[in-house]
Amino acid sequence: MTDILEADPPKKRLDGIKKAAILMISLGPETSAQIMKQLPDAYIQKVSYEIANMDHVSREDREAIVNEYLEMSQAREYILDGGFDYAKNLLNKALGTSRAKEVIDMLNQIQLRERPFNIARKADPQQLTNLLLGEQPQTVALILCYMQPDKAAQILVNFPPEKQADIAERIGTITNTSPAIIERIEQVIESKFSTYIENDTENVGGVSTLVEILNQVGRTTEKAIVADLEQKQPELAEEVKASLFTFEDIVSLQKSDVQKVLREVDHDALVLALKGVSDELRDFIYDNLSSRAVETLKEDMQYLGPARLSAVEEAQQSVVTVIRRLDEHGEIYIMRGDQDAIIE
After folding, report:
1. In sequence order, what E strands does the chain have?
2. 256: closest CA among 196, 331, 317, 188?
3. What percent of the chain clears pLDDT 70, i.e. is strictly above it?
4. Which domain holds residue 97?
5. At what angle do helices 41-52 and 29-36 cross, to 10 degrees?
6. Which of 60, 96, 160, 246 places its Cα 20 to 30 Å from the Cα of 105?
7. Is residue 152 within 8 Å of 178, Cβ to Cβ?
8. What is the helix (H) or strand (E) element at residue 268, kind and residue range?
9. Where is the Flagellar motor switch protein FliG N-terminal domain (predicted)?
């Protein structure tokens, strides 16, 4: 079941958690409840949140997700019966060459995540090289067999020439290895690698990460999270709010920067984004457009009619996304918290 949470076929481009939520909705509450019990807590929370915030599922999406789940389940059974070649042959007959390839590719990705030496595949090549330089050639060869070819090549070239040949020969002659040996080596490598990098930590999370996430969610969710932080961790909430850019914050931009943003924003998105905003904000936008553009914008807004809050928030978020992109590329400047102002 967790496969459908992670695999993402090329054509659908749906988030894995959304796909799982759609599947749960399609299967009904009783069946979904039984499936939920078998999922890790982290997935249950994510899927439950997605279900709670999903107010509409198109028939096309529902059918596509259910069909994908059935195809994946069927393909797994074929693999268990006779391996990938057997599964590929049957899937080609059942689904056609193109769709069969998509399913096989997804299963290959899933299998890759389940293969031994996962920590090695995720590790930085240079760090892993430093660790493996002291290992026996047969150990290095075994690990490289389970790694991505390009990363394995990066590691192999760092060994002395004579050791490269020894490792290459062993890779070429490995046919099978006891699972117990693989597991034992994997445990040793993971233990050594965790010790090796214990002082080489990676910066993850924190206010900047939270702000990046909040700048991508809908305004309703953003406001609810910030309000909750204000109750539980007021100092963190203030820090987040100082860095968080909202659609209304567009008035804090320089006039020239606003004009750059508006040139990049889709016209229809801007029409929808201005639905229900204050007169001051709307006038601010008008002041940064040509008279002809303002006339067109007002006309389109007049004929827009009622709009869903979620659609308006999505349009506003698309404007914020443009602003963040231009800021990251240094094309405009966003004031954040106590940062110094720009002197022109």
Report:
1. none
2. 331
3. 74
4. 2-114
5. 150
6. 60
7. no
8. helix 267-273
9. 14-116
Positive or negative, the CA dihedral 330, 332, 335, 336 is: negative
- Residue linked to tokens 């984004």: 273
3-state secondary structure at position 253:
coil
Structure tokens, 164: 């490269």
Query: Which amino acid, one-letter code, is at 128?
Result: L
Q: Are 303 and 240 members of one domain?
A: no
Q: At what angle do helices 219-232 and 309-328 cross, to 10 degrees?
A: 80
Lookup result for tokens 């249950």: 44
Return the amino acid letter for 90.
L
337 close to 242: Cβ distance less than 8 angstroms: yes
User: Following DSSP, what letter does each residue of 62-127 receive, concatenated?
Assistant: HHHHHHHHHHHHHHHHHHHHHHHHHHHHHHHHHH-HHHHHHHHHHHHHHHHHHSS-HHHHHS-HHH
138 and 182 co-located in one domain: yes
- Cα separation, 189 vs 176, in Å, equals 20
The DSSP letter of residue 342 is P
75 and 34 in contact (C-beta within 8 Å)?
A: no
One domain for residues 257 and 276: yes
**pLDDT (0 to 100) of residue 58:** 78
How many domains, the chain? 4
DSSP annotation of 275 reads T
Dist CA 250 CA 257 (whole Å): 9
Indicate yes or no: pTM above 0.70: no
Residue type, 69: Y
Q: Examine the domain organization and report whether 102 and 18 are in the same domain.
A: yes
CATH at 158: 1.10.220.30
